[in-house]
Design goal:
Number of helices: 5
Shape: elongated
Order of helices and strands: EEHHEHHEEH
Structural class: alpha+beta
CATH superfamily of the largest domain: Reverse transcriptase/Diguanylate cyclase domain
Number of strands: 5
Strand content: 5-15%
Largest sheet: 3 strands, antiparallel
Radius of gyration: 25 Å
Oligomer: single chain
CATH class of the largest domain: Alpha Beta
CATH architecture of the largest domain: 2-Layer Sandwich
Length: about 170
């Protein structure tokens, strides 16, 4: 199966009856159409997966975007409400990179983008895979920690502030 010059796979057809001659021209044409439609279906499925991912991810940082964050938060809150007081604690941390606009103007947007990507990587490294980490706005990030108290969130934010990872970029100049 080939679509737009890319090999996507192979289909194998065989006859169950011994002694039956090779496929007729009409059968070969039908098999070719089946392969072409299957290749197109596979390509469309891959494209849908890519578009779906782009709809929930921030293009610059790869974190979840604000739309996905808000939908996920709404779902978490509905689950919490249905639990009728026995739901585990939920905490949130909002990060805003102070004076980022000035930094962008002074060092350029490419350097600013690198800082945003680096900070996103730090957040992913520091928080659990079960935590919802998202880019909320330009230089604003949010983390929702399920099964965590406010004290847990304060400690996590303080740890991030007091113990930056070695991968942090230093500003040029």
């Amino acid at each position: 199966m080939i679509h737009d010059g890319a090999t996507l796979g192979a289909l194998v057809f065989g006859r169950l009856k011994a002694g039956v001659p090779a496929y007729s021209a009409l059968e070969c044409e039908a098999l070719s159409l089946i392969a072409a439609h299957t290749a197109l279906s596979l390509t469309n499925a891959r494209l849908l997966e890519e578009v779906s991912e782009l709809a929930i991810r921030d293009g610059l940082t790869g974190l979840y975007n604000r739309r996905h964050f808000e939908a996920s938060l709404e779902q978490m809150l509905r689950r919490h409400t249905r639990s009728r007081g026995v739901a585990p604690a939920v905490a949130a941390i909002m990060f805003d990179l102070d004076l980022f606009g000035n930094f962008n103007k002074e060092h350029g947007h490419q350097t600013g983008d690198a800082v945003l990507r680096t900070f996103a990587g730090i957040l992913l490294e520091r928080f659990r895979s079960s935590d919802l980490v998202a880019r909320y706005g330009g230089e604003e990030f949010v983390v929702i920690l399920e099964r965590s108290t406010v004290e847990d969130a304060v400690k996590a934010a303080d740890d991030l502030w007091k113990r930056p990872p070695s991968s942090v970029l230093t500003a040029p100049g």
